[in-house]
User: What shape does this take?
Amino acid sequence: MRQLQKPTSIARDAYFTCTSGVADQEFRTRLEKCFQEFEDAANQYINNAESMSLFMIYAIDDSTTQIVIGDLTNEELIKLYKQYMVPAKKPARKIYDEIIVRADGRCPFCAIGHVSTLDHYLPKTKYPIFSILPVNLVPSCMDCNKNKGSFVLLGAEEQTLHPYFDDIIFYRDKWISAQVLRTEPVSLEFFVTPPDDWNEISKKRAKTHFTKFNLSYKYSIEAADEVAILNDQRNTYWKSSTGDFSQYLASVATSSPFVNHWKSVMYSALADDIWFLSL
Assistant: This one.
């Protein structure tokens, strides 16, 4: 999980840049008339995101066509994203690309996959008014985008981590741990261990994020290849010194990109596991 700076483009930028690419004058006029309602909704989003209460925003029934703001339907607001922000030749594509670039290539949800798309933190099918809102668009890998899916938030504990808004504790404190499994070959199991001083909602949100993005499986797959390399290194360089091998593993753990990175968690677990060190 990686924290990201908010996009430089604001609601007004996105709305009018998308609108400028609309050739249908009737649709464009209706869009321009609805800007104030869009901006009010955007401000509500930011206020709720900052207070970790996005679950309180009303979600629509996406099985029907309904008016969302002004005389714009949910389908038209989603169209604004699909047809006027995503296509390469549209003016708003520059906003899309700027958001992608800010991730530096790695998905902030899992920190493993390569960014290739934008995820709507509040899904556009349920919350179409935020379909082009920059702070609702998070660069992600295809796996995380697919795993998250479209859902309605029913409570604070169901909110996955928001890379633009969430509390520093999720990025500063260690809340993912691993256990070395005595299998052949050696494998690791990853799980959530939030600090005791976290409140219950934060603990549940960490678990929600970990589960929703299937991080236990993703981390285990990454760890499998790394352990195979370590086995070779141990038999070649560290065979006569368990203590030195443990120190080496601990040093790699501390040099990893951040405290909950799969490599940091894995190397910490291996450095403390007597069975693994003694193989």
